[in-house]
Amino acid sequence: MFGIGGFELFLILIFGFLIFGPDKLPAIAKTIGRAIAKFRDAQEEMSGQLKKESFMDKDSDEPFKNPLDVLEGAAKDVKKGVKDAQTKVDSATDAVVDAASKVGTSSAGSTIEEDATEHVASFAERKAKYDRERKARKEAEAKAAEQAEREKSEKEEAAARAKENPKNDVSVKKVAEASDDVDTAKEEG
After folding, report:
1. What confidence category does residue 170 fall into, taking pLDDT thresholds of 50, 70 and 90?
2. pLDDT interval class at 161 (50, 70, 90)
3. Cβ(158)–Cβ(176) under 8 Å?
4. Mapping DSSP to helix (H, G, I), strand (E, B) and coil, where does residue 171 land?
């Protein structure tokens, strides 16, 4: 062990006995034994990890592989799989479009082929369309809320004026109704 013979080990023990004394020598030996055991465990664990994750192919003529070659091969396999999947999707889409075009036109008057190509829109296009619709909806809601707020403030002003001058209340109501009728006529016309 470590190239130490029996006589040299005996001399080390005698010097340890003289330096540390008979009381502490067993505790020191125990600590050294634990340290050596931990070192061996760590060494075995490390060698196990290296064997597990090594780029070795034991059956090959060339057992050690370049990790970059392994990654490039995996990338080629993935690209091939994606290309095959895209080809299958394209052929399925073409088949659906062909079958739909044989059926005729949809109720809206456009051909089913146009409808099918619309459904094949990319995710980005669908998201952009959804964002536009959402923005328009929010603007319409904001306009409606603003209109409601304006009407509420007009009613509050009319109520305040009516409290100040009760005789003028009837004429204010008639003016408000007439303005509503004019607004309705403008919207319809």
Report:
1. low
2. confident
3. yes
4. helix
Work out the burial of residue 153: count CB atoms within 10 Å of its CB; fewer than 13 is exposed, 13-18 middle, 19 or more buried: exposed
pLDDT given for residue 90 in this prediction: 87
Look at residue 114 in the predicted model and tell me its pLDDT. 55
Does residue 52 register a pLDDT over 80? no
Secondary structure element (H or E) that encloses residue 60, with its range: none
User: Do the Cβ atoms of 113 and 100 come closer than 8 Å?
Assistant: yes
Is-contact 147 132, C-beta < 8 A? no
CB 145 within 8 A of CB 152: no
Phi, psi of 121 (to 5 degrees): -55, 150
Which of 136, 96, 140 shows the shortest CA–CA distance to 116?
96
Give the CA distances from residue 94 to residues 88, 110, 154, 163, in Å, rounded to whole numbers and listed in that order. Answer: 10, 18, 60, 73
